[in-house]
Specification:
Radius of gyration: 23 Å
CATH topology: Porin
Largest sheet: 8 strands, antiparallel, barrel
Strand content: over 45%
Helix content: under 10%
Number of domains: 1
């Protein structure tokens, strides 16, 4: 009988521990450890729908209010890239892409359980910039290079769906997916190698970018009394 009572007490304590979620804390700080995402189209890039893999490139902070959390986050990505421009054999572009976004929004949990599905929406600013050279065809000679700079800046709206796993009262793992609607002002600046010709074009564009998967860790701080 004593063993049964002891077992019930342990189960009750375990249930109490795991029932504690981020809602029991005022703030949460998180890191996106891994993401699979699409970047905005650069110039006339042919493979712009390809997915990019990023590691530890985003931070977020949440202000928790029961089942609703207000979230603030930002991410930064920079990489040297090579891609076909306009068509497979038309031009080759080589350079560096830099992508930055800052968002604010909210998420709402469906349950208070150890596993918490949630949905939300973020609104923010995104900046994408490419700086490099384009070469005719697939050959890259300095004499035929054109300096290319392209930038996109604008508004981004992102519906989000995800799930959190409460491993410990103060630590969660999370995974989520989102779809960015990016409305931007684009500027393209192309200059010949000898500087004799320069072309500047501006556009207003919108595009949908899928953030297929991201996973990370979240720490909860400032426990409520």
């Amino acid at each position: 009988m004593k063993k049964i009572v002891l077992l019930l007490i342990l189960l009750a304590q375990s249930s109490l521990i795991f029932s504690q979620t981020s809602a029991d804390y005022n703030y949460s700080i998180g890191l996106r450890a891994y993401s699979i995402m699409q970047l905005p189209k650069i110039l006339n890039q042919t493979n712009y729908q390809d997915f990019n893999h990023t590691y530890a490139n985003a931070l977020l902070m949440k202000f928790n209010d029961n089942q609703i959390s207000y979230r603030v986050g930002g991410n930064f990505y920079r990489k040297d890239i090579t891609f076909n421009n306009t068509c497979a054999n038309c031009e080759t572009a080589v350079g560096t892409v830099t992508d930055f976004a800052f968002k604010v929004g909210f998420e709402k949990n469906f349950t208070y359980s150890r596993i918490q599905p949630y949905f939300g929406i973020d609104l923010g600013y995104r900046s994408n910039r490419f700086s490099g050279n384009t070469y005719p065809g697939t050959t890259m000679f300095a004499a035929t290079a054109r300096y290319a700079e392209s930038s996109k800046n604008g508004l981004v709206v992102s519906p989000v769906i995800g799930v959190k796993l409460n491993l410990l009262p103060y630590m969660n793992l999370f995974a989520e997916s989102s779809l960015d609607y990016f409305y931007s002002y684009e500027r393209q600046d192309l200059t010949d190698a000898n500087g004799t010709s320069r072309t500047v074009n501006t556009y207003q564009k919108s595009e949908f970018l899928l953030n297929l998967f991201s996973a990370g860790i979240q720490f909860n701080i400032s426990r409520r009394n």
